[in-house]
Amino acid sequence: MGEKKRKEAEVARWKKVLVVGACVLFVVLMIVSGMGYSWLSMFSSVKPGQAVEVSFTLYDNAGNPIITSEQDVYAKGIGEGRAVLGAQTITLVANQSLDLDYYPVDAYVPTTGQVSAFGITANEYDAISSALVGMRTNEKKTLTILPTPELEKFNDLEDLEDSGIGIANVTNGDVLGMTVFGFTEKFPTANSTPAAYLRLGEITRKTAGGIVVDGNYPRMDIRVVAFGSS
């Protein structure tokens, strides 16, 4: 009699386990169905032609952030007294190069409290786009960026005076705002007007006749936020 009750109790216990397991599975399936197909991206990687939302940070030669869409990087930079530009994430197509000089990104300038159009160079854009292939959601990469020769500019005394900058007040390593220009059409016409974009440049050389300002950034960190279908 005791053996029979023991077996019945064991069967009842397994029935409870099965019921609880079925309930948990039901809840999981409900959550997954509510997510639609987006949950699949957690297990897949970016393919060429897919639209990808990317968080990014560009760094200067000293490793300091210039512009970032990562809140922790921005907060740390501001806390250290750096004029880091704040940006939103950007969306681009994986493995598709930019056929313009610059890709515009709205940037918050903490020193003025205003938003300006920051210009991501074609080299920077292409480095992101090609690196995205094979990446997964929340995966990070550090990229080396090829310089854009046009971003290394000599500013003579007249240029500095026009910008309200006294050569005696600047030194090597200082960071200055610089304006660059690029057409917004792939094939500009005679009536096309180039758009102005913001870059931050570092003074790399100072002479009696002027300064050299370099607006290139050698390194970029990227993180895949999300990606969709091709």
Walkthrough of the structure:
- With 230 residues, the protein is α+β, with helices and mostly antiparallel strands.
- It has 2 domains: 2-36; 51-227, no CATH class.
- Helix content is 26%, strand content 35%.
- The strands form 2 sheets. Strands 1, 2, 3, 4, 5, 6, 7 and 12 form an 8-stranded mixed sheet that branches. The protein has a 4-stranded antiparallel sheet with strand order 8-11-10-9.
- A hairpin with a 2-residue loop joins strand 10 (195-207) and strand 11.
- Mean pLDDT is 86; it is low at 17-33.
Number of strands: 12
Residue fraction in strands: 35-45%
The domain tally reads 2
Order of helices and strands: HEEHEEEEHEEHEEEE
**Spatial separation of the terminal alpha carbons:** 67 Å
State the major sheet. 8 strands, mixed
Overall mean pLDDT stands at: 86
> Number of helical runs?
4
Proportion in helices? 25-40%
For the structure shown, list the relevant keywords:
26% helix; four-stranded antiparallel sheet; alpha+beta; 4 helices; eight-stranded mixed sheet; 230 residues
Quick overview:
This protein has four helices and twelve strands. It is of the alpha+beta class. The strands form two sheets. Strands 1, 2, 3, 4, 5, 6, 7 and 12 form an eight-stranded mixed sheet that branches. Strands 8-11-10-9 form a four-stranded antiparallel sheet.
Furnish the topology, listing elements before pairings.
Elements lengths: L1 H34 L15 E9 L5 E4 L2 H9 L5 E3 L2 E4 L8 E8 L4 E8 H10 L8 E5 L7 E5 H6 L12 E8 L12 E13 L2 E5 L4 E9 L3
Parallel strand pairs: 2-3
Antiparallel strand pairs: 1-2, 1-4, 1-12, 3-5, 5-6, 7-12, 8-11, 9-10, 10-11
